[in-house]
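in:
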């Protein structure tokens, strides 16, 4: 979790009158269908500022969606890519005990002190693997970050499990080591 978000959560009781846990209980009781409905409710009924309301609703929804659900949703209709995904995760988990794997709606962030790899099922036949490898030159295989923008410096397109070779593993290891 980044410092700004943690500070916001720490300041929540003072600024909003309730802790994040208390807000989560309240929102669970209301069970809003849309994000915007929860934000509007907090703003109008509890005078919570937009920034806090948005954060509270976002963090409440994330808790209600399991990591397994998020990953399953990403690969729905792309089940053939799960073999590649599982192979990547298996390698990444062995990089160190300080690796955190965070599935999101459309990708999976791999974090040490900061994100160093991003796994995204981009098409039905391809996973894009994003890297943070500052000052590393691009190659035909290790491309610029493309659609990842500032989240990553490079990406590799993977369509087959056999593409998870020693070269790719070295790049993942290098990104891990640079994320200290």
């Amino acid at each position: 979790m980044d410092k700004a978000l943690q500070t916001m959560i720490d300041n929540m009781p003072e600024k909003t009158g309730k802790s994040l846990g208390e807000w989560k209980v309240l929102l669970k009781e209301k069970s809003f269908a849309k994000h915007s409905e929860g934000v509007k409710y907090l703003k109008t009924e509890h005078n919570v500022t937009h920034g806090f309301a948005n954060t509270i609703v976002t963090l409440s929804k994330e808790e209600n969606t399991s990591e397994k659900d998020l990953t399953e949703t990403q690969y729905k209709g792309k089940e053939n890519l799960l073999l590649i995904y599982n192979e990547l995760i298996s390698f990444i988990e062995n990089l160190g005990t300080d690796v955190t794997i965070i599935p999101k709606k459309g990708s999976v962030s791999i974090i040490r002190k900061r994100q160093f790899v991003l796994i995204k099922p981009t098409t039905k036949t391809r996973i894009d693997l994003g890297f943070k490898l500052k000052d590393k030159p691009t190659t035909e295989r290790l491309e610029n970050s493309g659609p990842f923008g500032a989240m990553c410096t490079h990406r590799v397109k993977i369509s087959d499990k056999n593409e998870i070779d020693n070269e790719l593993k070295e790049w993942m290891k290098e990104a891990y080591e640079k994320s200290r």
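note: The two ends are 15 Å apart (CA to CA).
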